[in-house]
Amino acid sequence: MLAQLPPVLRELRLPLRLRLWDGKEIDLGPDPTVTMTVKDPSLVALLANPSLDSLGAAYVEGRLDLSGPILEVIRVGAALSEAVLGDEDGASPDYRAHDKATDAAAISYHYDLSNDFYRLWLDRDMIYSCAYYPTGTEDLESAQQAKLHHLCRKLRLAEGDYLLDVGCGWGGLSRFAAREYGARVFGITLSREQLQLARERVRDEGLEGQVELTLLDYRDLPQDGRFDKVVSVGMVEHVGHGNLAIYCQKLFGAVRAGGLVMNHGITAKHPDGRPVGRGAGDFIHRYVFPHGELPHLATLVAELSQSGLEVVDVESLRLHYARTLEFWSANLEARLEEAVRLVPEQALRIWRLYLAGCAHAFQKGWINLHQILASKPCADGSHEVPWSRGDIYSAE
Question: Where are the active-site residues found (predicted)?
Fold first, then answer.
């Protein structure tokens, strides 16, 4: 059987054991930490072109199994792909259509999977976005609370401010802003499952007089400048390159003159937004985030500026997201027996690869996470941003 393997595999020294459908085993290096069980003989040809997309698809479809610590599975799989295919990134992306119906369906596919499933591995407030680690030693719970404070401080959120939360998820940030900073909050989402639980939590905390959450597309936001501050967390990834201008214009129209807008979202490595990681992006498009597209920081800053907003601060939290995903992945791995009762086996396979794979991608710099703070200038060109950032960090 060894003679049938692609010649390049015989020359590798990876801690990977191949277990074939007939029970034979081949070690590609000493002391294997990961075992790949090939259940379909036709996959031998795939091993000659082991993109992360094709390997991931074979695992999701049950044609091969992977055993070993999941982060090590990702590391070894990435090393195998790089050794055979080199380190070339994908071609320029084929931008996708983003109408309201398509976006609503894509959001439902990802976020309406199961509230109980997400609860297994997120923090208690179910904050499904990059946490913030001021010292690098925080656990997930404290890092997520630190992130919420970080956002609110950057927005200079004050008691009585009217805050728009675009893509409010399970309402963690909306409730936090109301409870800790005294803000009034209007949050929007396209996920019915998230909205139901978010409203329950608002009621449970007695915040119904301060927090209103609703099912609404960002394209239908009021454009009368009624909000003092706007925050958008983990939303821009779903907008699409073709709609970035509309998205930024809607944020501009929603906030008053002198108000602040915070966009917190994943950004692409390359200015044209093409995927990286030898098929990793293709896997995510196919199985995790249909119609998701990552803008480059430069593109997003340009569109925000074109809308009339003035970018006043940019911060990369790439390594913060790598650590957050490592926590999420570890939490899920520790509760696999519960997870398999909540979602189909194929979905669980997708999520195991996705969380660990994204941790690897952020660690390697294949993708980034940027917080972009922008101001809507007053008529005379002034704005309300303090002269220094000292107020953001003093409380840390």
Answer: 358
Is residue 74 over pLDDT 70?
A: yes
- When pLDDT is averaged across residues 177-203 and rounded to a whole number, the result is 96
Assigned CATH class of 100-393: alpha beta
Return the DSSP state at 3. G
> For the chain, which residues make up each domain, given as ranges?
2-85, 100-393
Residue-level pLDDT at 359: 95
Q: Is 45 left (phi over 0), alpha (psi -120 to 50) or beta?
A: alpha
Gap between the Cα atoms of 375 and 93, Å rounded: 31
How high is the pLDDT of residue 44? Answer: 79
Higher pLDDT, 273 or 75: 75
**pLDDT value for 11:** 72
Comparing CA positions, the residue from 118, 218, 119 lying closest to residue 165 is: 218
Query: Cα–Cα distances in Å, from 359 out to 173, 176, 320, 364, 389?
Result: 23, 26, 10, 9, 29
The pLDDT tens digits of the residues spanning 237-276 come to 999 999 999 999 999 999 999 999 999 999 999 888 777 6
pLDDT at 93 over 70: no
> CA angle, corner 21, sides to 15 and 22, nearest 5?
105
Whether residue 216 contacts residue 187, with contact meaning beta carbons closer than 8 Å, is answered with no
What distance in Å separates the CA atoms of residue 286 and residue 396, rounded to the nearest whole number?
Answer: 40
Residues in the chain: 396
Q: Distance between alpha carbon 159 and the CA centroid of its chain, in Å?
A: 30
368: tokens are: 């980034």
Other beta carbons within 10 angstroms of residue 120's beta carbon come to: 17
Unique residue bearing structure tokens 């074109």: 306
Tokens representing residue 27 in the block = 């070690």
DSSP code string of 194-229: HHHHHHHHHHHTT-TTTEEEEE--GGG---S--EEE
Q: What is the pLDDT at residue 7?
A: 66
- The reported pLDDT for the residue numbered 357 is 92
Q: DSSP strand E in the chain: where?
A: 16-19, 25-27, 34-38, 64-67, 162-166, 184-189, 211-215, 227-233, 255-268, 310-316, 367-375
| CA-CA-CA-CA dihedral for 203, 205, 211, 214, to nearest 10 | -40
Joined tokens for residue 241: 């390159």
Quote the DSSP letter at residue 296: B
| Residues labelled as active-site residues | 358
